[in-house]
Amino acid sequence: MKKIVFATLPLKKDIEKRNYPVEGNALIEIHEPIYFAATSALAGTLKPEDEVKVILLETEGGENAGKEHAKEFEEELNHFNKAGAKISCEIFTSTFNPSKANLQFIFKALVRKLEHGAEIYADITYGPKPLAFFLFTVFQFAEKFFDCSIGNIVYSKVEFEKGKIVDGSEMIYDITPLYLMNSFTNMIEAPSSERAIQTVEALFEE
C-alpha cells in the first residue's frame, strides 16, 4: 500500500528520545524511546509491500536544525521497519513567514506531493503552528480529489516545570478524531443552529 507521511521538523537542535505512552489509540504504542511520534504511528503497521513516502517539513528559522533532524527521522523509521517496507524521505523547506504569498506557496507545493489512493499520516509535533492547519486542509483535498484515506494524525507532548520535564508527562496523542470532527462539521446539514448542535451531541453520545 502507498503511504504518505507528513512530519514537521524541530527548529531547535536539542531534542531527546523519550518513552511515550499513547493516548487515544494503544494500537500505535511502542515501548522504546523515540524522537518522533510518526514512528510510533507507523512501526507496528508497516508491511513488506508498503511504499512509504515521507515528506519532512523543514522551516527556516530558530537554530535551523531541520536537516539534522531529517536524518534522525529517517534513521529512526528505518530502525523500526522490521517488515522491510520501501521507505523514501524528502525535505520540503519553507520560511517562517505567514504571509499570503508564502501560505499559497506551501499549500500548492504540498498538494503536489499527494498520490491517488494513498493512506496519509501526519506528525504535527514540531514546527510553526500554521503547518498543522495546512495539513488538515491538505488532507481534505486528498480525500476529495485523490481518493486518499486517513491513517493517523499524531502529536507528542511533554510538560516542563522550572526548566525540567515533569515526570510522567510524556504522551503521544492520536488526534485523528479532531480531523474527522472537522470533516463531519463540514458535512452537517440542518435547518437551524439548534438542530446542528443536537446532531453533534448525538454523535458524541456513548
- Structural class determined from secondary elements: alpha/beta
* Percentage of residues in strands: 15-25%
Instruction: Report the order of strands and helices.
Output: EEHEHEHEHEEEEHH
What is the C-level CATH assignment?
A: Alpha Beta
The CATH topology annotation reads as Rossmann fold
Overall radius of gyration = 18 Å
The chain-level mean pLDDT equals 91
Q: Uncertain spans, ≥5 residues at pLDDT below 50? A: none
Q: Tell me, what's the shape?
A: globular
Can you tag this structure with a few keywords?
alpha/beta; seven-stranded mixed β-sheet; Rossmann fold; two-stranded antiparallel sheet; 206 residues; 9 strands; globular
Describe the structure.
Helix content is 36%, strand content 25%. The strands form two sheets. The protein has a seven-stranded mixed sheet with strand order 2-9-6-5-1-3-4, sandwiched between helices. The protein has a two-stranded antiparallel ribbon with strand order 7-8. It contains six helices and nine strands; from the N terminus they run E-E-H-E-H-E-H-E-H-E-E-E-E-H-H. It has one domain: Rossmann fold (3-Layer(aba) Sandwich), CATH 3.40.50. It is an alpha/beta fold and 206 residues long. The two termini are 33 Å apart.
